[in-house]
Amino acid sequence: MEREKPLRLDRRQLLVGGGLVAGAAGLGGAAVYALRGDGGPAPAAQPAAAADDDGEFALDGEHTDLTTFVLAPHPRRVREAIERHRAALDASPSLALLEGEPALEDAAREAAADYLGTSPDLVALTDSTTMGLGLVYAGLALAAGDEVLTTEHDFYATHEALRLRAERDRIRVERVALYDDPASADAGRLADAVADRITPRTRAVAVTWVHSSTGVKLPLADLAEVVADANRDRAPEERVLLCVDGVHGFGVEAASPVELGADVFVSGCHKWLFGPRGTGLVWATPEAWERLRPTIPSFSPQAYVAWLEGRAPTGGPPGPFMTPGGYQSFEHRWALPEAFALHQELGRGEVEAHTHGLATRLKERLGELAGVRIVTPISEELSAGLVCCELDGLGPPDAALRLRDEHRVIASVTPYATSYLRFGPSIANDEADVDAAVEAVRALTA
Fold first, then answer.
1. What are phi and psi of 338, to 5 degrees?
2. Fewest C-beta atoms under 10 Å: which of 2, 212, 313, 414?
3. φ and ψ of 56, to 5 deg
4. What pLDDT sits at residue 4?
5. What gap in Å lies between CA 357 and CA 353, rounded to an integer?
6. Which of 418, 415, 376 is nearest to 155 (CA)?
7. What whole-number distance in Å separates Cα of residue 359 and Cα of residue 158?
8. How far is CA 83 from the centre of its chain?
9. Could you tell me which residues come within 8 angstroms of residue 57 by beta carbon, excluding any fewer than 6 positions away?
10. How many CB atoms lie within 10 A of CB 309?
11. Which residues, at least 6 apart from 200, have a Cβ–Cβ distance to it below 8 Å?
12. Structure confidence at residue 55 (pLDDT)
């Protein structure tokens, strides 16, 4: 029988000095616990039983799911917003569009901008990380012979988007290996590896914030410094852009990629952010937007009016101009602000601490088991929420299957040529979930 899964922060936080607040009122009755950010006294936390009765996630309750980062379950408030917008669209699609657009799309862009710490005009809305990467690398101003530097560790979407661009325009795509053993990755060596491969023809560095292949988190601020050094004596059109696939850091890390120095940031919103499925975004600096061109017609007012007047569009904010037009999954996009609001109310620092805390607990406890090798760095400087590991004598697909069938623990397998067993504790999980996963792995390796 389906039951609500409580959304909790780390239980250890709930016991520290009473400096806690139950977020029930701010979350429509959902008992979500978060540290107070103002340091003031907090009301007593509600008991866990209350959270169980009125939780955020409608998980089945029969499985320990540590893969909500693959495709997130909708929190209660997101589900309710989707249903509200869907009902309006079903009742009268034309009226719902007339009354909802563009205000509701603007609200989604504004919520994303507030979360990132930027302007709504610099945010384009997409359906996924893959769509965003395709738009960026297809639209980046590059000439034959220009280079894009990426890594051996990036996902298919980055590699394939760049391959397609290289095939079309004869640009060069170079790959660099940042580490041999992910568990012993070093921030300084990661940055040096990128610096050593930037050439006078490099126009973009295409990296992933948190590698879904290994769980390694790149030091974005260090990479931004490397790129800044490379750009010191370059003309504006020759400057290197730091382009980031950030989907496995977005909704986990408290620091914004804007603060960390990215030039272009791409992410889906339906993983760690727990946004509506089929939503994503692209953000870029004004200077970076100048070097990006749309590949799908926009429905921005400037673009549409220009068409009516028989001319090419000029002016207008780049975010809406780069947002693909056409009919969308409106009820999902319009519900996106609810996901940002949830994270803002929980507190970005608290979400990071909770997710990192569970991931660290999982790595430490799995590391104590014989026959288990942790692939992801232990250090929180170089890891986020993903935890990858190997089991002696048991391949990742078989391990994931047995965990599910024999122990009702859901893990994933990294979709790469070299694959690992992968977990991802999130705000939908607590320490009991981590401990259940550890005991299940212990049974497999006994």
1. -65, -35
2. 2
3. -90, -30
4. 45
5. 6
6. 415
7. 26
8. 24
9. 4, 5, 6, 7, 68, 73, 75, 76, 428
10. 9
11. 238
12. 78
Phi, psi for 32 (deg, rounded to 5): -115, 125
Q: What averages of pLDDT result for each successive group of 10 residues across the chain (446 residues)?
A: 42 26 26 27 27 68 96 97 97 92 94 98 98 98 97 98 96 97 97 98 98 98 98 96 98 97 98 98 98 94 92 91 94 98 96 98 98 97 98 97 98 97 97 98 96
| AA identity, residue 44 | A
**Is residue 90 exposed (0-12), middle (13-18) or buried (19+ Cβ within 10 Å)?**
exposed
Rounded to whole angstroms, the Cα distance separating 7 from 346 reads 10
- Output b/e per residue, 49-81; b: 16+ Cβ within 10 A: eebeebbbbebeeebbbbbbbeebbbbbbbbeb
The residue whose two tokens read 């945010």 is 123
Phi, psi of 151 (to 5 degrees): -120, 165
Q: For the chain, what's the residue count?
A: 446
- In this predicted structure, what is the pLDDT of residue 10? 37
Which pLDDT belongs to residue 100?
A: 85
Q: Domain boundaries in the chain?
A: 1-61, 83-342
CATH architecture under which domain 83-342 falls:
3-Layer(aba) Sandwich (3.40)
The amino acid at residue 86 is R
Report the distance separating Cα 215 and Cα 213, nearest Å. 6
3-state secondary structure the chain: CCCCECCCCCHHHHCCCCCEEECCHHHCCCCCEEECCCCCCCCCCCCHHHHHHCCCECCCCCCEECCCCCCCCCCHHHHHHHHHHHHHHHHCHHHHHHHHCCHHHHHHHHHHHHHHCCCHHHEEEECCHHHHHHHHHHHECCCCCCEEEEECCCCHHHHHHHHHHHHHHCCEEEEECCCCCHHHCCHHHHHHHHHHHCCCCEEEEEEECECCCCCEECCHHHHHHHHHHHCCCCCHHHCCEEEEECCCCCCCCCCCHHHHCCCEEEEECCCCCCCCCCCEEEEECHHHHCCECCCCCECCHHHHHHHHCCCCCCCCCHHHHHCECCCCCHHHHHCHHHHHHHHHHHCHHHHHHHHHHHHHHHHHHHHCCCCEEECCCCCHHHECCCEEEEECCECHHHHHHHHHHHHCEECEECCCCCCCEEECCCCCCCHHHHHHHHHHHHHHHC
